[in-house]
């Protein structure tokens, strides 16, 4: 609101500045040519000065004086002929209207197209002082702190995984290395460094990365992440048998419902082994994108669950707004099924069927999916 | 909120400029004083609005407000303060806002200092200025809005182009724009005169300070740009005949011609129509330069972001203003009464020769700059018009001009005496030749042409001195009288002498560097030495260092002469972290007017590094001469005769007529 008040004041102020000469009205009008005559009189004085100093000869001066004199006479005679016209009142009124209309019309129209009046200024210092939950600013704040105190290992340790997740891999590597240098290594940091190096090498487990995982293994012999990447290193160097053995060991040691089992099974198969049957092996979610899965893998178990639920909830909300989306309904039903929330899945199916009747092709598709997943359908209840 | 207020101020500036484009002209046409008065106060308001918008953008840059897209794109929180400040115009949007600011600044100056101008002329001039302001404000708001916002705001900026992180950015663009845009005033005066259909000596008188000021700033801006390129780019050159350089050089050449033809017009009422045309052409070349540099037609450090819509918009502005102005000229010029007559050998004649050569050389540069662009856009064929073309054509044209310069001030108006001028100058010429020979001997040879080049430069310097010498009558009069006469000379005489002397000094520098320069490209390992210009450089090795926003590898060199250490110098290669962009920071050592220039190349596999070492004798004369020219411009600008007393408001026309009759 204050903004619009200031805008109004500014516009009014400029309008007043433009209107003042119009409101003051016509005054006695000086001849246009008085200024010109002044120039020529000045030139005459100049000639006298030059002559007095002997810079020009009297002859030259006389000649020039005659010339300038002629110009002066021409100007002066022109002045008398000029008729000073008064200003027409109508013209002034019209001009006032032009000013009063143009300023707000052009100003507000164009500004409403190009401006963002609701956006406040955001000086960096103010944002740093009060970061709220702006992740980027928190990172910047930590960075500034580290620029002042580069020996603060905790700071590097905090930033490293954030850098890794936002794909600032060079910074992530530096942060992990600094944290390890200052705080000493632990499995988490070495693993993080190794993963960063792999990401930077487009998925190749480089020698540096392998060295990092070996360090991690020394500190924590039971870390599955470490073992997985070491096995991957074997696979990538063509040591198929060793890789297969390593992956199989990993699968055996893992808890039955570990989320990485399908991935490990994939690698076992790739290296010529048979996947170990595990009870908890889940089907791929299907709906989240590969990036989401990758991001989810890097989260703690609780966070991951939360993230997936968040995505499903947002899909749900979208479908409430725009229900004509069979793909969306299929995904939503499948997601609730996978999340073991049969009530919500049944509700989703009901809402989907309200949009796409049960006897339509889409309706049948949804029913088939629900039956396949063991979700209660209207038909079952009946 | 303040960012949005700045944005709104700019929009309001557009509205004000539109009002100013229409009402004052209407008033001038109908003889309506209040409407004409509106131009004066309106121009001040316009300046206030744009200055406020500019201040807001500056504040956003200083406060690293990354919610402003322009700040996010061109700044970084870790950039040193001065570069946050100069970064305001170190990008397309900000530099266009600076362009506009200087334009309305000149309008405000005309409004303030133009009290002695006829009402109609002042109203028309300010209205034409407002046309230009309208066009450029619209351009800024529609295609290059510096107040575009980002939501949510990014946490960190993308950094300023490292090449621009230099004090040069704080000085070069504002000076250059003061020159470029200053010529808009001359343009507006020319258009106003054409609209009124009346020009006379007084017109030239009123335009002269604006031409002088613009020319002075442009001289300084070009020289500063040249020196910046010289020390920053690491190639050791000071002028490349690069299209971007030519874009600023063409208005300078045309502006120099305008400066001289306006003198003829003011003093003798001759060359009136020609002067009007030159005023139009000079600003047109400024606009053309803006188009070439900003449209993305050329790729260089000046073309920040290429966006076709911008190029087309500027092209439209260009066509509208240049085409409109020339059409008006063609329509009205025949109706103007032409001026006085003069003999070919006279001061006027000399100035016509000056104009002739300067305009032909402007055309040469224009062809050399535009021809490759036209050819490429028409046939797709890429050719490069480089220094050989310009040196052959432009260089050749400059020889008669340089030789003729000292004669001009010595010739009388209307009918001159060439023989008399020759007699007065032969001492200067002989002296110049002698000193050139001595120089040649001291420098141990070089091409014979160097002697002639040096003599030409010295002839300009000595010729400027002899002009003052003869005017004061030194040698003919008693010392006391001569001194009084010298002190009593108008300041513009000193300005002329200084400007011509400065030109001579620049010529000296150019000839000395091009003929006596030495270049060594050597692969050096720590402990090795190289020779240049009589100095021995010992390479001590490389060291790493970290700056606020860059990391660098610096090489250290110890410079000795005759076994004694005289100086040491660092030369480095930097990597700016935010943009991952490398730059070269040359090591430059100054000995008197000469410089030793050390630039690092690529490291070799065996631990050595390629080092380029230049010995640049008397190179500082090039820019020193420009400074002297600039100083001459200011001296001339301060001449009391340029400040005609404002007509007393109470003076009656009749009285003026009586005075004229006396």
Automatic annotation (TrEMBL), chain A:
Subcellular localization(s) per the UniProt record: Cell envelope
Transmembrane segments: 6-23, 94-113
Superkingdom of the organism of origin: Bacteria
Family annotation (Gene3D superfamilies): Tetratricopeptide repeat domain (1.25.40.10)
A single GO cellular-component term on record: cell envelope
Main localization, broad class: other
PANTHER family hit by this protein: CYTOCHROME C-TYPE BIOGENESIS PROTEIN CCMH
Protein name: C-type cytochrome biogenesis protein CcmI
Species this chain originates from: Metarhizobium album
From TrEMBL, chain B:
GO cellular component, as recorded: plasma membrane
Residue ranges annotated for the Cytochrome c-type biogenesis protein CcmF C-terminal domain, each copy included: 315-640
Any single biological process term in GO: cytochrome complex assembly
Membrane topology summary: Multi-pass membrane protein
Record InterPro entries: CcmF_C, Cyt_c_assembly, Cyt_c_biogenesis, Cyt_c_biogenesis_CcmF
Localization, UniProt: Cell inner membrane
Occurrences of domain Cytochrome c assembly protein (ranges): 89-295
Pfam families in the record: CcmF_C (PF16327), Cytochrom_C_asm (PF01578)
Keyword entries, A-Z: Cell inner membrane, Cell membrane, Cytochrome c-type biogenesis, Lyase, Membrane, Transmembrane, Transmembrane helix
Principal localisation: membrane
GO terms assigned for molecular function: heme binding; heme transmembrane transporter activity; lyase activity
Membrane-spanning segments: 6-26, 38-57, 96-113, 125-142, 175-195, 207-229, 249-266, 273-292, 312-331, 352-374, 394-413, 425-442, 448-472, 493-516, 617-637
Role: Required for the biogenesis of c-type cytochromes. Possible subunit of a heme lyase.
Homology family: Belongs to the CcmF/CycK/Ccl1/NrfE/CcsA family.
NCBIfam families: nrfE, PRK10369.1
Protein name: Heme lyase NrfEFG subunit NrfE
Native species: Metarhizobium album
Taxonomic lineage: Bacteria, Pseudomonadati, Pseudomonadota, Alphaproteobacteria, Hyphomicrobiales
């Amino acid at each position: 609101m204050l903004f619009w008040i200031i805008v109004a004041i500014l516009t009014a102020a400029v309008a007043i500045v433009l209107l003042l000469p119009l409101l003051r009205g016509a005054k006695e009008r000086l001849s246009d040519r008085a200024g010109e005559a002044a120039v020529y009189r000045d030139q005459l004085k100049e000639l006298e000065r030059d002559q007095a100093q002997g810079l020009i000869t009297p002859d030259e001066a006389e000649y020039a004086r005659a010339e300038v004199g002629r110009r002066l006479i021409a100007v002066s005679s022109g002045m008398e002929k000029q008729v000073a016209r008064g200003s027409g009142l109508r013209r002034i009124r019209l001009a006032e209207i032009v000013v009063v209309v143009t300023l707000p019309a052009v100003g507000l129209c164009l500004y409403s197209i190009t401006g963002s009046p609701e956006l406040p200024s955001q000086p960096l210092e103010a944002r740093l002082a009060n970061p709220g939950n702006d992740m980027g600013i928190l990172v910047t704040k930590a960075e500034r702190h580290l620029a002042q105190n580069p020996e603060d290992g905790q700071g590097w340790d905090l930033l490293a995984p954030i850098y890794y997740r936002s794909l600032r891999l060079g910074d992530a590597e530096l942060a992990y290395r600094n944290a390890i240098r200052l705080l000493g290594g632990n499995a988490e940091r070495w693993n993080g460094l190794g993963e960063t190096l792999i990401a930077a090498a487009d998925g190749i487990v480089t020698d540096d990365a392998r060295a990092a995982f070996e360090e991690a293994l020394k500190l924590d012999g039971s870390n599955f992440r470490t073992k997985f990447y070491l096995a991957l290193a074997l696979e990538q160097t063509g040591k198929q048998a060793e890789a297969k053995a390593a992956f199989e060991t990993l699968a055996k040691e893992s808890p039955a419902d570990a989320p990485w089992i399908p991935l490990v099974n994939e690698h076992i198969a790739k290296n010529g082994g048979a996947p170990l049957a595990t009870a908890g092996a889940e089907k791929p979610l299907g709906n989240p994108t590969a990036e989401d899965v990758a991001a989810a893998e890097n989260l703690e178990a609780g966070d991951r669950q939360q993230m997936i639920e968040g995505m499903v909830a947002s899909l749900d909300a979208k479908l409430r707004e725009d229900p004509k989306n069979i793909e969306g309904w299929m995904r939503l039903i499948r997601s609730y099924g996978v999340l073991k929330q049969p009530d919500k899945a049944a509700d989703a199916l009901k809402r989907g069927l309200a949009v796409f009747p049960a006897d339509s092709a889409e309706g049948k598709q949804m029913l088939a999916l629900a039956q396949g997943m063991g979700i209660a359908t209207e038909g079952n209840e009946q | 909120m303040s960012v949005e207020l700045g944005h709104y101020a700019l929009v309001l500036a557009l509205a004000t400029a539109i009002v100013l484009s229409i009402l004052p002209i209407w008033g001038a046409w109908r003889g309506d004083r209040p409407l004409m008065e509106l131009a004066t106060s309106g121009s001040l308001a316009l300046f206030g609005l744009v200055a406020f918008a500019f201040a807001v953008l500056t504040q956003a840059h200083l406060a690293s407000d990354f919610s402003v897209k322009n700040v996010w794109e061109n700044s970084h929180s870790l950039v040193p303060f001065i570069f946050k400040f100069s970064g305001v115009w170190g990008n397309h949007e900000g530099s266009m806002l600076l362009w506009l600011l200087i334009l309305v600044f000149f309008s405000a100056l005309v409004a303030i200092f133009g009290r002695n101008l006829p009402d109609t002329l002042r109203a028309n001039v300010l209205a034409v200025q407002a046309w230009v302001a309208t066009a450029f404000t619209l351009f800024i708001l529609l295609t290059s809005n510096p107040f575009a916002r980002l939501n949510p705001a990014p946490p960190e900026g993308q950094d300023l182009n490292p090449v621009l992180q230099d004090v040069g950015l704080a000085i070069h663009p504002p000076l250059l724009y003061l020159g470029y845009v200053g010529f808009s005033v001359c343009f507006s005066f020319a258009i106003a005169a054409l609209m009124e259909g009346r020009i006379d000596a007084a017109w030239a008188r009123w335009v002269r300070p604006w031409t002088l000021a613009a020319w002075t700033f442009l001289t300084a801006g070009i020289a500063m740009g040249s020196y910046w390129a010289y020390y920053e780019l690491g190639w050791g050159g000071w002028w490349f005949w690069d299209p971007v350089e030519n874009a600023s050089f063409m208005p300078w050449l045309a502006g120099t011609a305008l400066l001289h033809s306006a003198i003829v017009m003011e003093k003798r009422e001759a060359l009136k129509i020609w002067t009007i045309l030159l005023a139009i052409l000079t600003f047109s070349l400024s606009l053309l330069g803006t188009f070439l540099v900003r449209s993305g037609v050329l790729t260089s450090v000046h073309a920040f972001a290429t966006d076709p819509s911008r190029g087309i918009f500027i092209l439209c502005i260009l066509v509208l203003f240049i085409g409109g102005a020339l059409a008006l000229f063609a329509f009205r010029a025949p109706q103007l009464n032409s001026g006085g007559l003069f003999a070919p050998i006279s001061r006027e004649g000399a100035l016509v020769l000056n104009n002739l050569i300067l305009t032909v050389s402007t055309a040469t540069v224009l062809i050399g700059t535009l021809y490759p662009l036209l050819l490429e856009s028409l046939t797709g064929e890429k050719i490069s018009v480089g220094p050989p073309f310009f040196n052959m054509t432009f260089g050749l044209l400059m020889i008669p001009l340089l030789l003729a310069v000292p004669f001009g001030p010595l010739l009388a108006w209307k009918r001159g005496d060439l023989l008399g001028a020759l007699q007065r100058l032969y001492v200067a010429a002989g002296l110049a030749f002698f000193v050139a020979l001595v120089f040649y001997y001291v420098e141990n040879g070089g091409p014979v042409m160097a002697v002639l080049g040096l003599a030409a430069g010295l002839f300009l310097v000595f010729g400027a001195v002899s002009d003052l010498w003869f005017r004061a009558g030194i040698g003919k009069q008693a010392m006391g009288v001569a001194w009084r006469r010298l002190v009593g000379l108008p300041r513009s005489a000193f300005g002329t002498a200084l400007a011509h002397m400065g030109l001579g000094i620049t010529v000296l520098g150019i000839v000395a560097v091009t003929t006596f320069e030495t270049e060594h490209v050597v692969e050096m390992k720590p402990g090795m030495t190289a020779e240049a210009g009589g100095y021995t450089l010992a390479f001590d090795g490389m060291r790493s260092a970290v700056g606020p926003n860059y990391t660098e590898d610096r090489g250290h060199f110890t410079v000795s002469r005759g076994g004694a250490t005289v100086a040491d110098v660092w030369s480095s290669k930097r990597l700016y972290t935010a943009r991952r962009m490398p730059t070269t920071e040359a090591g430059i050592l100054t000995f008197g007017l000469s410089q030793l220039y050390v630039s690092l190349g690529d490291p070799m596999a065996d631990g050595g590094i390629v080092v380029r070492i230049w010995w640049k004798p008397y190179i500082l004369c090039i820019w020193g001469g420009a400074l002297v020219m600039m100083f001459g411009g200011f001296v001339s600008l301060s001449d009391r005769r340029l400040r005609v007393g404002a007509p007393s408001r109470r003076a009656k026309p009749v009285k003026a007529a009586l005075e004229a009759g006396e």
